[in-house]
Specification:
Aspartate Aminotransferase, domain 2; Aspartate Aminotransferase, domain 1; binds 4'-deoxy-4'-aminopyridoxal-5'-phosphate; 40% helix; 2 domains; alpha/beta
Length: 405
């Protein structure tokens, strides 16, 4: 028996995606930058994927920059925008991020902080949510970038992205007006427009990611969370965002990200986005919501000392994070693994000096509570049967661990 309940870590490549990718490893192996027919065939496939992605996010094709995944896309976005701000003589640019960002955002920001950038963290409440008022209060004339993730990968909390985007847009409009009024020749654009970036890696399968509707200037996502391949993702960066490259070479992707295009990966990424439109929102969401309810009902009725982390009403239903009193999550994860069940814990954390999840810490859990927390994440193939088996095995394993104490 095996049950995979770790879809927030990665998903399998779906059959439709795999089939679409396969020819591009062998028969259609061309380099998309080559001028001959082999290259042209590859370029056509890349263009098709770009078109699908453009329609999904409501952006332009040349605003899409393919990368090796969301980690690289986040690095490019943050470092590239700061590099550009510095070249426009904004001496101490400021970045605002939430307390619960993915390490690829936090660690990049810390690196930039070491290079003279001001970094400010926006606190989240016990539900794992930032507030628009707090953000507005932190924005000042040096702020060049706000980066707030759409959905948190540990607790599933959904940020009010559209409201945050709207507030930033209003501040930009007011600043533009003031700048133009103060300027004698009335030409040019204000040098420090605030860019609103969101890491939408965990959101895109389920939530509205229209960039204009959400007032988003830059967005990152990854293939392997949406039944696409690993090692491919993208940064979408609106044309008016000033950004400089961090990888140099042959000038691919409009000079923003050099390197031979990962054609099979891009084809797979495009197909996985195409499949979201066809199959998921909102059908998958309802199914997964029902499964979450069933799982929560089962584990709560079996054990009285289970506490849900975060607020389920304000989170995506595929991510369920809970703690079990007096149980070490690492031991539990290993014991479940031995029974063929894959889940994850929030206990490993490489950020700052914390030895447990910075996300669980940010929503108010102490070290013991965080170290007894596990994350179960459901996917489109998860079934009621699996939920029933999981609850039964979880109970068995917990009793086992308790007896061993
Ligand atoms: N951001 C978030 C929210 C994620 O969940 C992940 C993957 N855990 C990443 C970024 C990094 O994505 P990738 O594996 O494509 O580098």
């Amino acid at each position: 028996m095996s049950i995979y309940f770790d879809h927030a870590a990665t998903t399998p490549v779906s059959e439709s995606v795999l089939n679409k990718m396969l020819p591009f490893f062998s028969a259609k192996f061309g380099n998309a930058s080559s001028v001959h027919n082999f290259g042209h065939e590859a370029l056509l496939a890349v263009d098709e994927a770009r078109g699908t992605i453009k329609n999904f996010f409501n952006c332009e094709v040349d605003e899409i920059v393919f990368t090796s995944g969301a980690t690289e896309a986040n690095n490019l976005c943050l470092s590239g925008i700061i590099k550009s701000a510095k070249s426009r003589e904004i001496e101490v640019p400021k970045i605002i991020i939430s307390d619960i960002e993915h390490p690829s955002v936090i660690e990049t920001c810390k690196e930039l902080e070491g290079q003279g950038v001001t970094l400010e963290y926006l606190k989240v409440n016990k539900d794992g949510l930032v507030s628009v008022e707090d953000l507005v209060a932190k924005i000042d004339e040096n702020t060049v970038l706000v980066s707030i993730m759409y959905v948190n990968n540990e607790i599933g909390s959904i940020q009010p992205i559209r409201e945050l985007g709207k507030a930033i847009k209003k501040i930009n409009e007011n600043n533009d007006k003031a700048w133009r009024q103060a300027k004698v020749d009335k030409r040019g654009t204000r040098p420090n427009k605030i860019v609103f970036h969101t890491d939408a890696t965990q959101a895109i399968r389920y939530l509205n990611c229209d960039m204009d509707w959400n007032y988003i200037d830059a967005l990152t996502f990854s293939g392997h969370k949406i039944y696409g391949p690993k090692g491919i993702g993208a940064l979408i960066c609106k044309a008016n965002v000033e950004i400089e490259p961090i990888i140099f070479g042959g000038g691919q992707e409009g000079g923003k990200r050099s390197g031979t295009l990962n054609v099979p990966g891009i084809v797979g990424l495009g197909k996985s986005i195409d499949d979201i439109k066809k199959f998921s929102q909102p059908m998958d969401l309802k199914k997964i919501e029902d499964l979450r309810q069933s799982l929560v009902d089962k584990i709560s009725s079996e054990f009285f000392d289970i506490v849900l982390n975060g607020n389920y009403e304000k989170a995506l239903p595929n991510i369920i994070n809970f703690r079990i009193k007096n149980i070490n999550a690492e031991s539990l994860m290993i014991a479940l693994d031995m029974k063929g069940i894959g889940i994850s814990t929030g206990s490993a954390c490489s950020l700052s000096k914390l030895t447990y999840s910075h996300v669980l810490n940010a929503i108010g859990l102490n070290a013991d509570e965080a170290r007894s927390s596990i994350r179960v994440s459901l996917g489109n193939a998860s079934t009621e049967d699996e939920v029933t088996q999981f609850a039964a095995i979880l109970k068995e394993v917990i009793l086992q661990i308790k007896n061993l104490k």
